[in-house]
Amino acid sequence: MIRNTTKRQKLGWVLFLLYLCLLAYFMFFSESFGRTDTDRGYAYNLVPLKEIMRYFRYYRTLGMPLFLINIVGNVAAFMPFGFFLPIISRRSRKWYNTVSFGLIFSLILETLQLIFRVGSFDVDDMLLNTIGAALGFLVYKTVQRTRVKMRRLRS
Q1: What's the longest Cα–Cα distance across the chain?
Q2: Residue 87: which residues within 8 A CB-CB, separation 6 or more?
Q3: Nearest-angstrom CA–CA distance, 106 and 130
Q4: Which of 127, 74, 60 is nearest to 99 (CA)?
Q5: Per residue in 93-149, pLDDT tens?
Q6: Across the strands, what pairs with 122?
Q7: Are 110 and 121 in contact (CB under 8 A)?
Q8: pTM for this prediction
Q9: How far apart are CA 55 and CA 70, in angstroms?
Q10: DSSP for the chain?
Q11: CB under 8 Å, gap of 24 or more: what pairs does 99-104 form?
Q12: How many other C-beta atoms can be found within 10 angstroms of the C-beta atom of residue 97?
């Protein structure tokens, strides 16, 4: 697996693993996100767009920091996933594979949050995470096109 990889892919693996460690920390261990309080009951939202609409509806009451952490943060948290996955996996160079893997990985993380009672299982978080993976893939494709154009110009 690692033997037949390019230097870029090896660097991609290292960065992807670092990203996964950071993501795991913020999802399960970060005190600033209240992840160490496991004495509370199960919390979940199974209604699509319920929490997203609540954040938009009560934006002025909730404030910018909470809005950014929940809406923008969930998208931004999965952009590296969508960017690095096509670098380390040829199978993920198709957009639908990367987006599907992003959805599945988000489902796994949300389920683990429910099981271990750190955070809540939220279908809206899964939607935002999947959008983040898709945007990360678009950034990857843009970078790839730019690299190819630059290589052609140098030739």
Answers
A1: 62
A2: 8, 9, 12, 16, 140
A3: 7
A4: 127
A5: 999 999 999 999 999 999 999 888 888 899 999 999 999 999 999 999 999 999 999
A6: 45
A7: yes
A8: 0.90
A9: 8
A10: --TT--HHHHHHHHHHHHHHHHHHIIIII-GGGTTT---S---EE-STTHHHHHHHHTHHHH-HHHHIIIIIHHHHHHHHHHHHHHHH-GGGGSHHHHHHHHHHHHHHHHHHHHHHTSS-EEHHHHHHHHHHHHHHHHHHHHHHHHHHHHHHHH-
A11: 99/130, 99/133, 99/134, 99/137, 101/133, 102/78, 102/129, 102/130, 102/132, 102/133, 102/134, 102/136, 103/129, 103/130, 103/133
A12: 16
Scan for tokens 């600033």, then name that residue: 32
- List, for residues 19-53, the tens digit of each pLDDT value: 999 999 988 888 776 565 656 677 889 999 999 99
Task: Decide if 70 contacts 55 (C-beta within 8 A).
Answer: yes
CA distance linking residue 145 with residue 126, whole number of Å: 29
Alpha-carbon Rg for the chain in angstroms: 18
